[in-house]
Amino acid sequence: MTGIDAIRAAAARARGIRRTPLLEAAGLDRIAGRRVLVKAESLQTTGSFKARGAWAAVSALPERTAGVLAYSSGNHAQGVAWAASAHGVPSVILMPSDAPAAKVAGTRALGGEVVLYDRAGEDRDALGARLAAERGLTLIPPFDHPEVIAGQGTTGLELAEQAGAAGVAAAEVLVPCGGGGLSAGIALALEAEAPALRVRTVEPAGFDDMARSLASGRRERNAASTGSLCDAILTPAPGALTVPVLSRLALPGLAVSDAEALRAMEAAFRHLKIVLEPGGAVALAAALFRPEAVAGEAVIVLATGGNVDPAMFSRALAGQARDG
Amino acid sequence: MTGIDAIRAAAARARGIRRTPLLEAAGLDRIAGRRVLVKAESLQTTGSFKARGAWAAVSALPERTAGVLAYSSGNHAQGVAWAASAHGVPSVILMPSDAPAAKVAGTRALGGEVVLYDRAGEDRDALGARLAAERGLTLIPPFDHPEVIAGQGTTGLELAEQAGAAGVAAAEVLVPCGGGGLSAGIALALEAEAPALRVRTVEPAGFDDMARSLASGRRERNAASTGSLCDAILTPAPGALTVPVLSRLALPGLAVSDAEALRAMEAAFRHLKIVLEPGGAVALAAALFRPEAVAGEAVIVLATGGNVDPAMFSRALAGQARDG
């Protein structure tokens, strides 16, 4: 199981990973009614935190590796393609054919071989197993993998230090959550480094499998696999490795609507000058628009990704312009 | 005259100033045909580098100050309003009535008292002089002021360190230029800390008063005062303090079109996930779309501001979408 030693080891190997800033703006504090600190992982190499876990997993492979394989709607894909290229390792990425064009193009540009499949009609796992067997590829799963969780946990090491420097010793830490790899990694890092910073997962309404799993004590599935704009964090069910960690360490999970995620994208544009995708903005949405659900004088938010098509981003900006 | 000692002193006083990241993306390197390093001052408090000079100037005032006055189309306004509020000093900001709504709103939200004037019909200087006399305000000019130049120069101290850490010892440093305060401050800092990093100003085509001044050896004026989208860097003429510094230290100036600035905004959105305004994107535009005008294996770019209205930002994204 991943622990603080694995996270520290991943941080020591993470040559290609950027230390992302912890941003603030008075305008966000006004909306939320408390101090808001935003860890901008959208500024990470490849545009999302996924580069961290991918780097950790690829850098832990034996030297002679035929290649790696990943399933992803986009951000994990780009992280794995980038980390593999940086290590001189071929990568094959299975992506749903309805993944955002920006993510498909981004993955190819980073050196990944993209294989598209039909999310509804094709058996992704069977396709992946066949490719892996034929070409001797090693699967790098998006969240349920000790090294991936350790890599995501390096975010928490930085956060503990940055929050301390900003004078925030105790706060809720809201994390956009798909399978829970980032949330679990951060929770483990904070347990060791800043135990009064407590993780809360944030999911799209209707896809709150993690929140329900934490409430019931067992892995709950989502009823649907599509139907939210937050493509980056739509997983069928949370991880086998992540649920036990978060059951032990996390506060109850939150969920927000797509409309709230879009409004949070506009707020991040206006006040922080950063680009977020819908799934990367759900934690900021919870901090801004569900203040009564959060406790404390300050709240910390993970802004996890910015790989969004221009049309979707303009839609977020236009929606807010209409509201005034 | 501002020198490296004044810049170091400004850095030592700059409690409220954020150290902004030096970002890179493989996609930008591909467009430019060389390595591109982007100092993202758009992520500075208030959304532009102007916070640096404003903080330096306000923090150098005597303790008992009735208030400060600034003329600005927006970014300097926000910087002064913010720095004054942080020091408990009232601020009055004269803004043209055609300034972007985001900048007017931003200035007010930061505690500045905004007085609008008609850019074509009213005498801004007379209005400012009257207000200053009536209320005992101290003028903080946008660029032609030793402390303002020193404050902007703190960007150069960070850049020298960050470029060294990134392995770039020699490169051209492209800087969006209005009156030349940032360019001069950075040039002075780099002269002391990293003399093989050489500043080049970048201006909007048709408003290249600094490039012409550097070429002729005297302060040249622009023919027009409006007619570019790059509102942040439309100055009638360069500074009396900045031209001598840049004549001694800078390489010849560059200019780009509004269309190129918009394309650079789209590239920054796509590859770096940051929000730039047109005037903040001109140096990136030169790096990406005028590669033949630049020398060296790497180029450093200042991305100076992100205070842009949603409609203008969407226009930049849509333009690029049409081109494919």
User: What amount of the residues of chain A lies in strands?
Assistant: 5-15%
- The overall number of domains of chain A is 2
Overall, the morphology of chain A is: globular
CATH class of the largest domain in chain A: Alpha Beta
Spans of chain A with pLDDT under 50 lasting ≥5 residues? none
Helix run count of chain A: 13
Show the largest interface. Answer: A-B, 36 and 36 residues
Largest sheet of chain A: 6 strands, mixed
Could you tell me the CATH topology label of the largest domain in chain A.
Answer: Rossmann fold
Helix and strand string of chain A, N-terminal first?
A: HEHEHEHEHEHEHEHEHHEHHEH
How far from one another are the termini of chain A? 49 Å
Q: Write out the strand line-up for the largest beta sheet of chain A, numbering strands in chain order.
A: 1-2-10-7-8-9
The percent range for helix content of chain A is: 40-55%
Coarse structural class of chain A: alpha/beta
This entry's quaternary arrangement is homodimer
Instruction: Report the CATH architecture of the largest domain in chain A.
Output: 3-Layer(aba) Sandwich
Radius of gyration of chain A: 18 Å
Q: Averaged pLDDT of chain A, please? A: 94
